[in-house]
Amino acid sequence: MISKLKKAKKRCINYRKRLLEISQKVQALHVGGSFSSVEAMDVVYNVLKKKNDKVILSKGHCGIIQYIILEDHKIISKKLLNSYCQPNGKLGVHPEVFTRGIEASTGSLGHGLAIAAGMAIANRKNKIFVVLSDGELMEGSVWETVLIISSLNLNNIIIVIDNNDLQSATRATNTHPSLYPIKEKFINFGWDSEYCDGHNSFDIYKKISKKKKNKPFALISKTIKGYPISFMKDVPMWHYRSPNKTEYKQSLKELEKYEK
Predict the structure, then answer these.
(1) Which of helix, strand or coil describes residue 215?
(2) What SS3 state is found at 59?
(3) Structural domains in the chain?
């Protein structure tokens, strides 16, 4: 585990570089939200996930980062990933279950956790990891599922919430201030819950590894949208647009510096 964690920063930088490479062929790409969830996705796939565990990316608009990790695991090919959002390509923005390595079709926010609940009922021996966005927590279906998961003692469900506080153009603290505090809400719904630094792989791993075994677990991953690129961080427009050539080159330079 420790050796895998020590390599996490390098992997995450490479995942971001690959995303930027693909962005030069796609006019609209969810760079900001993908960048904020890289460390969480990396820890789940590369450190925590065992052979028969399942991973659902409920914030499906960031499917690109899931594809990149699946490419790294040689589950999907480079050729297939290069077809992302291209004419006649087989990969769209949102994950589709017919793609190898994808456990659930997502994109309509609020559905991924309910799918995970069904999987957890069918197989209680293996873990189900779900990555959600904080914007998803505004969906009533999420809280209905949160309630039923704890009521049915589905303790093999672990969720990571990408809490960057930004949706497409608004902040949750402004539009839905009563969403907070998130941790206490999950605890009141019968879950174990913790906060973590969402850009610190060791912290993500530590908090999940120390979860209570007799409860489902919700990790609120405090992140910055667009991290670690200076001109993308906490800027709403990077929910949609792709960097131009100048921005692309600057982003690569910043990632090289960040790696040192």
Answers:
(1) coil
(2) coil
(3) 2-259 (3.40.50.970)
